[in-house]
Amino acid sequence: MTAITFDTLKFVETLKASGFAEPQAKGMAVAIQEVQKANLDELATKGDLRELKLELKSDIREVESRLMGEIRLNRWMLALVVAATVLPALKTLLIG
Question: Where are the domains of the chain?
Fold first, then answer.
């Protein structure tokens, strides 16, 4: 998990200098830390992104391989259909 530096002492001192009471300033500092922690728990790390990238590349290669197989099969099927259609026509033309 990524750590974000949050100077709570400076934050509390800044709030107190602005007129906040110390308990209020400390409470706000704690609240901000909790929000930051909750937000960090939802963030993806660079490692998460690298892992996802590898998974996606693998999935893409798999889909590409299947599609190439289907394309080869379709080419053969088309060749057979053409042959079945053209050969009788040629036979009729040549034999007459």
Answer: 1-43
Q: Kindly give, in sequence order, each residue whose CB lies less than 8 Å from that of residue 20, ignoring residues fewer than 6 positions away.
A: 28
- For 31-35, the CB contacts below 8 A with 24+ separation are 32/6, 33/6, 33/8
CB-count exposure of residue 11 (10 Å: 0-12, 13-18, 19+): middle
Closest CA to 26 of 40, 36, 14: 14
Six token digits for residue 31: 């609240």
Which residue ranges in the chain fall short of pLDDT 50? Answer: none
The model's pTM is 0.50
